[in-house]
Amino acid sequence: xxxxxxxxxxxxxxxxxxxxxxxxxxxxxxxxxxxxxxxxxxxxxxxxxxxxxxxxxxxxxxxxxxxxxxxxxxxxxxxxxxxxxxxxxxxxxxxxxxxxxxxxxxxxxxxxxxxxxxxxxxxxxxxxxxxxxxxxxxxxxxxxxxxxxxxxxxxxxxxxxxxxxxxxxxxxxxxxxxxxxxxxxxxxxxxxxxxxxxxxxxxxxxxxxxxxxxxxxxxxxxxxxxxxxxxxxxxxxxxxxxxxxxxxxxxxxxxxxxxxxxxxxxxxxxxxxxxxxxxxxxxxxxxxxxxxxxxxxxxxxxxxxxxxxxxxxxxxxxxxxxxxxxxxxxxxxxxxxxxxxxxxxxxxx
Length: 349
Description:
Immunoglobulin-like, 3 domains, 6-stranded antiparallel β-sheet, Jelly Rolls, 42% strand, 4-stranded antiparallel β-sheet, mainly beta, 7% helix
């Protein structure tokens, strides 16, 4: 998200000084304040993305909570500044007849709007084409992960507006879009590729590749966990790491939860490792038991907390197995905890 308001405050005095000098060059001391309707010559960003002053060149796209310089005429009697019909506060001390320094209100809407800057003065009103861009897209998840080429996938997140979606380097067909959800049709060659959402404000790529799931709201054959292990499936999209369903089990100290036994030779050839998301109600610790190797290994141990944590293991960290047979998680604090698991997938990088 492009938000530099904290960086720009120290430049206010500098900008005001520039404004005064610039105005003095244009106006004699005895020049009267304009009584004509205002005009806008340009809008410029006050600082660039690194927080340094810009050359005040014209821009037509801005970001909420950032500072902009408006140049023109007839500003001395300024009453209101609106972006997309939403008012932004301005400091009268940062206004001359030819220049306005204003911060776009952080609550300014950006979807289904008129994309206009509007100035209201004592002697008239003017509108100017100007787009307030949304924050960079937030990519929360997509489902199903194991969709086939040509099938529909739903992307969830926020700030989706006129999005371009690519799977790998190939653009996908967008079927529908709202601010929080995009439905796409997977192009050919999608398997093993990651999805990227791009808007006017930036890009975001989800870290799980198409077709790599062992568990994604459900287990994919041949993977499963036997019901005798007394785990549950929680259906709560607001609490899930990926999708809407995740696994919960209360594990006794030094106890475990384990998948069924499989024989996956292709997986260790096709992918680079495995990963999963995990959390617990309070601070915990687990060890990944890989292919029934119950010997303690610091490499395979990891801490957990109330926040989701994505844990990754490469095949080399797991002693370069020739086949994938079984996954288990051993409780390693010696105390009982509620543990949660989600998005158990292969890695491709």
